[in-house]
């Protein structure tokens, strides 16, 4: 846990992130050329990182022994000093709340959100497989569900973080808000919209509808390819149990076989509350079955 002036009490972070590392992350001064990939964990961050990496490299995928986290450093994991030393233009991953994230009006921010019911399922399988996630090594899904709703998971409360970023994305041109479900439905048009937002030299060929490049980006970031690559350590350097891979199932609606009716209704209530505070947030998934 760490402290930050924008929140009361403590903020839960991943195991080894000390207060000192956290402070250096939130005090990082972004360069106008920086691109941040922001998200709540398990919302499709790695998929989006890979898409952005493929766009930047004109469709050259990472190979064996290369790790996505090395080319797109994780702000609060590495600390601000490490990011400062990275070559520009930088792409930086973060799971910070909006108010904690280093801002620069000229830097760009892409935020990806996924429906909370699938997030809690995905987060459970992620957490239960890691030693460093304190008591959850052998915890049950029901235990985990309670922690998720109370905002106790690593990176804090989904129902604070995601709606806040959504609201800010409506107010600021330098934030591009994406949905995991939209990517699942039509990744091609989501990639083109993203390229339009990024809009600088290395995206020009995509914007000009270079079908070959677009197809490479889609193919190399497909679930199948990423699942295979993740076994070679491309996406997650941590050692994970074989039955709990990082690139796990990659579907929408997995919650239907995990959440009880009561749990599903409790999330509906939280979404409705969030919608009252952040208009439109509760409607984001209205076209998708079951939310
Ligand atoms: P599941 O656990 O539901 O399978 P993050 O990168 O933010 O931690 O998100 C991880 C989730 O994204 C996992 O969800 C993972 O399987 C999914 N994912 C990773 N790569 C994907 C891809 N290429 N297509 C679809 N989903 C993907």
Automatic annotation (TrEMBL):
Listed InterPro entries: P-loop_NTPase, Sulfotransferase_dom
Keyword Transferase appears in the UniProt entry: yes
Domain of life, source organism: Eukaryota
Pfam annotation, one family: Sulfotransfer_1
Keyword Repressor appears in the UniProt entry: no
EC number in record: 2.8.2.-
Keyword annotations of the record: Transferase
Top-level class of the enzyme under EC nomenclature: transferase
Domain (Sulfotransferase): residue spans on this chain: 32-272
Family: Belongs to the sulfotransferase 1 family.
PANTHER family attached to this UniProt entry: SULFOTRANSFERASE SULT
Name the record gives this protein: Sulfotransferase
Organism: Clavelina lepadiformis
């Amino acid at each position: 846990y760490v402290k930050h002036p924008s929140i009361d009490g403590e903020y839960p972070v991943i195991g080894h992130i000390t207060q000192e590392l956290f402070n250096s992350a939130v005090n990082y001064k972004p360069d106008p050329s920086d691109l941040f990939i922001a998200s709540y964990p398990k919302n499709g961050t790695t998929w989006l990182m890979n898409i952005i990496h493929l766009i930047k490299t004109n469709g050259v995928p990472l190979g064996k022994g290369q790790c996505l986290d090395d080319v797109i450093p994780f702000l609060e994991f590495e600390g601000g000093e490490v990011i400062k030393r990275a070559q520009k233009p930088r792409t930086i991953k973060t799971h910070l709340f909006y108010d904690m994230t280093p801002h620069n009006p000229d830097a760009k921010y892409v935020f990806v959100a996924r429906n909370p019911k699938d997030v809690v399922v995905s987060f459970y399988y992620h957490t239960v497989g890691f030693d460093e996630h304190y008591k959850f090594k052998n915890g049950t899904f029901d235990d985990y569900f309670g922690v998720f709703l109370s905002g106790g998971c690593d990176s804090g409360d989904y129902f604070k973080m995601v709606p806040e970023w959504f609201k800010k994305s409506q107010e600021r041109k330098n934030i591009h808000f994406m949905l995991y479900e939209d990517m699942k439905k039509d990744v091609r048009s989501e990639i083109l919209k993203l390229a339009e937002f990024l809009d600088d030299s290395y995206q020009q060929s995509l914007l000009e509808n270079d079908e070959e490049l677009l197809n490479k980006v889609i193919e190399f970031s497909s679930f199948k390819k990423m699942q295979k690559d993740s076994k070679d350590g491309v996406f997650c350097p941590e050692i994970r149990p074989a039955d709990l891979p990082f690139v796990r199932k990659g579907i929408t609606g997995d919650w239907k076989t995990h959440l009880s009716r009561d749990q599903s209704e409790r999330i509906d209530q939280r979404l409705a509350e969030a919608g009252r505070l952040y208009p439109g947030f509760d409607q984001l998934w209205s076209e998708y079955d079951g939310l």
